[in-house]
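Weekly puzzle thread! Below is a chain. First person to post its structure in token form gets bragging rights.
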Amino acid sequence: MSVKINYKNNFLKKNSSNLVLFSDENFNISGLKNHISSKEHYFIKDLIKNMDIKKKILSFDISSKKKIILVSIKKNIKSYDAENLGAKFYDLFKDLKINHFNLNSDSISDNLKNIVGYFLHGLKLKSYAFEKYKSKKKNKNILITVTGKNKPLIKDQTKFKAIEEGSFCTRDLVSEPGNILHPDEYAKRLNSFKKYGLKVNIYDDKKLKKLGMNTLLGVGQGSIRGSYLVTIEWNGLKNKSKPLAFVGKGVCFDTGGISLKPAKFMEDMTYDMAGSAVVVGLMKSLALRKAKINAVGVVGLVENMPGGNAQRPGDIVKSYSGKTVEILNTDAEGRLVLADALTYTEEKFKPKFIIDLATLTGAIIVSLGSEYAGLFSNDDTLSKQLINVGEKVEEKVWRMPLNKNFDKLIDSKNADMQNINYVGGAGSTTAAQFLQRFILNKTPWAHLDIAGMAFSKYGGALNASGATGYGVRLLNKLIEEYYE
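Winning reply:
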């Protein structure tokens, strides 16, 4: 199912269209007399008396071919409230036989011009469905024609579309099965992103071995597929200012390796590459909206399999940073991929900050469920910025502790460190503490553990069940608010 939005200057007088109007939170429709007939106004005014106005969206059957739909806008409405209204609208009316809607933006207050844009943005985000492999697809299209003077500005329309396409790109990648989106295919797809004006460099096994990225390579060595590090650069500024850096874990399928996972729910491990997918979706959004910023996305792409050449518990590997790691559990693999990627990103690009995203630990789900991503950081300013924009787009983060006292839990007797804490407890924190050791030059850094946020069994306000696209809107807002 797809949603198409057209913008027209003149009001469409079509009885075969459903009319969408906005009112205040009490459904006072006295201001709508200019937009509907007196007969329709009287009819609706009479029916509202016996309706539950807490529902926020009310629908009235004018004829077999026309509805008038009222959407209530509360005072001091936030952008995410408008997005949620749009998503709710989609859920209520997606299955109508007559699927053409005429949205009259003149029915909304002049000082709320952007609300229409956010409403439609939420509607579009909610409409996503991954039906690529279904033999029978829902081919129904929803057409929304927006009329009136309170339409979103062209630049806002471009921004919303870019974020939608970036979010959908992320959801598509996360939704792909492991037999299709293995590291070889993933790297191939990323190479095609050059068409958006992005600079893409792909480092394969041979190049990674030469660079000394042995923690990343170790994770993928049990797979018949290759392992890759891919850098994606967007240069939106003519000057050579330091870029913003985003690093993503791309474990295309995670069996746990020799430390094999239980069979139950292992099929969900196709989404263990969600961190990388967020980075890819973000970079696509920045390119599409021609963001005035320099940014780089770095993703490590591997498949963690228990093959004959797989990494063993007890192995010791030397990372790109020169630090050695004792592998006590091959299922603590994401931190090994990120370790080399973080150090390389810091050294190669010398960024203003580094934000990494990963479905890193089940422990963060125990802590925060599916409401907040875990935030770990060495920088208070960056942390506050992420918390602030997370509230604004309802992609929330919660700051968790890092402290040198946790280091003793990952110190190894045989190497510089070990990849898990065998004592138990603080699973997410010790994983983040491990990553922090690979930030060598005190670059402001934040780690987002999105294990509870990347995939939803029951769906959310702006997404159906499945891949959520969490993180694309969060990071877009961070850039827009503080760095453009």
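Puzzle host: Confirmed. Bonus trivia for everyone else. The domain at 160-482 is CATH 3.40.630.10 (Aminopeptidase).
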